[in-house]
Write a sequence for this structure.
């Protein structure tokens, strides 16, 4: 058996970024051959994947990324076992590479398809290989959950602790308006139920309008005034029902401007949103 020197172990560790003892054992098994030892280390990740498969991954990050021109955005959920790993530099790099490839690449229908695609920052290698390298380094369950790519105008926001991610889609020409990110932050904080009034139960909306109209008629005011009164009451109803566009805009200190009005000031109208909480449906 060839002698395994400390220098050889250090060299393998620099190439793989794996623990010294793992590198030493692989070199001993490979009779000192660096390439063979590296292959051994890569093969061992398959056993590691099986070993951690039944563990619970409830920490992680919902990563978001918007194209510079605001015409598309991507959101990816990556789960791990512990909070420290969710802040690990290599873990965050993996999240970044996933969102970049999903945004700039051909798209993907699911996590497996995305993992088969190239690593944006490397001239060779797939995201699955990067995933396996990360598993080898960290030694806990790390899995890619939901993925999503949408067309713009779109704004995105990831909460500071990584547990909430939002994409807000709009119609209009001002795809890079700062208000889009502000509305995404609003959605993260206020957790609306739907984007638009028409997405509520039509029967419930009709009943509420009829009830408000009946109340307003008791005032004896003209029909055109009654209609305005009912519209005002319905705005309150929509806000209470969690309709995004009817909610008071969180960044408006006067609380007099709705989300719809904030977007309209930038020439935009909301069309839909997606809000993910890490690990939650």
């Amino acid at each position: 058996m060839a002698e395994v020197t400390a220098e050889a172990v250090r060299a393998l560790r620099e190439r793989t970024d794996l623990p010294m003892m793992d590198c030493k054992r692989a070199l001993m098994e490979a009779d000192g051959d660096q390439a063979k030892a590296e292959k051994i280390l890569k093969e061992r990740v398959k056993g590691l994947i099986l070993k951690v498969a039944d563990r619970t991954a409830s920490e992680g990050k919902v990563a978001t990324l918007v194209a510079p021109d605001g015409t598309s955005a991507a959101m990816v959920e990556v789960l791990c076992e512990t909070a420290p790993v969710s802040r690990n530099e290599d873990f965050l790099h993996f999240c970044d590479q996933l969102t970049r490839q999903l945004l700039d690449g051909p798209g993907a229908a699911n996590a497996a398809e995305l993992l088969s695609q190239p690593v944006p920052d490397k001239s060779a290698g797939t995201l699955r290989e990067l995933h396996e390298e990360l598993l080898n380094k960290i030694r806990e369950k790390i899995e890619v959950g939901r993925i999503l790519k949408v067309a713009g105008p779109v704004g995105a926001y990831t909460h500071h602790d990584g547990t909430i991610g939002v994409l807000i889609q709009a119609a209009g020409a001002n795809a890079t308006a700062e208000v889009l990110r502000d509305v995404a932050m609003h959605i993260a904080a206020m957790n609306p139920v739907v984007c638009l009034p028409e997405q509520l139960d039509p029967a419930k909306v009709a009943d509420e309008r009829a009830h408000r109209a009946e109340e307003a008629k008791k005032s004896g005011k003209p029909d055109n005034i009654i209609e305005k009164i009912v519209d005002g009451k319905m705005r309150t109803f929509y806000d209470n029902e969690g309709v995004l566009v009817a909610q008071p805009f969180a960044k408006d200190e006067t609380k007099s401007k709705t989300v719809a009005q904030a977007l309209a000031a930038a020439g935009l109208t909301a069309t839909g949103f997606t809000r993910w909480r890490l690990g939650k449906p």
About this structure: Residues 59-151 form a domain with the Tetrahydropterin Synthase; Chain A fold (CATH 3.30.479.20). The longest strand covers residues 142-151. The chain has three domains: 6-52, 59-151, 197-269.
